[in-house]
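ok posting inputs for the zinc ion job
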Amino acid sequence: MARFATLYSGSSGNSAAVAQTTAAGTEFLLVDMGKNCKQAMLSLQQLELDVRGLKGILVTHEHSDHISGLKVFLKKHPVPVYGGVATLEALAAEDAVPPAAQLIPIDGRQEDIAGFGVEAFATSHDSAGCCGFHIECADGHTMSIATDLGYVSHPVMQQLQGCGLVALECNYDKTMLMMGSYPYYLKSRINSTRGHLSNEECAETLAELLAAGCTRFALCHLSQENNIPDLARATVMERLLQDGRFTPEQLAAGALTLQVSPRHGASDWIEF
Ligand SMILES: [Zn+2]
Ligand SMILES: [Zn+2]
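and the output
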């Protein structure tokens, strides 16, 4: 059985878990660690995950909302860290990981991490490097996670297609961003092709994935300033239902999973 949850998600910090239970017990990977070690341990407890089952941490990029808890956590729990070469170099250069940390680049190949087949794919974002991850579990079920991307390129779309679950950034409402208090340069940065994904862009992408058969989605990395969880959910849900794929009965029976990842604390698990 494969499952996905977020430990916390949003502009103030991001971390997610992918877990599978096999004969070896429950083992899991984390994606990013953007809050302190204490918060990670609290969320793991909420998710009923024993840290001894952690097999590695995948890092999308070196922005602080993805790595600020890494150093202290790795001192206590020294597991391998996986990511793109540029990201790992930035982590080492910025002293964001202990000197003895095991950093393993996985650009352009699939890495077997304790029975999880992990592939990194490049995303467009204003960092040294940035990637999402495609993860294949031992039972053959797959998921992809992509946050911090200015747009969904064709290669990214290919990594999202065919997955049992997709966790995608749903960062901002365009009107809230444009009418909000951010200075012009910051609005431009967020809205650019190297910034973040808006609710509308996320909705369009998920509608395409739904048409191709995916029915489990997690909305991640919501902006605190420029988004509201109910608005993000409503924008995406409205778009997903536009094509009339579901009857009210099917929806009531749980034919579609659309989870908004909470800013603080762990989400529910989604099985895929
Ligand atoms: Zn970022
Ligand atoms: Zn971020």
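notes: The CA atoms of residues 95 and 178 lie 36 Å apart. The chain has a mean pLDDT of 96.
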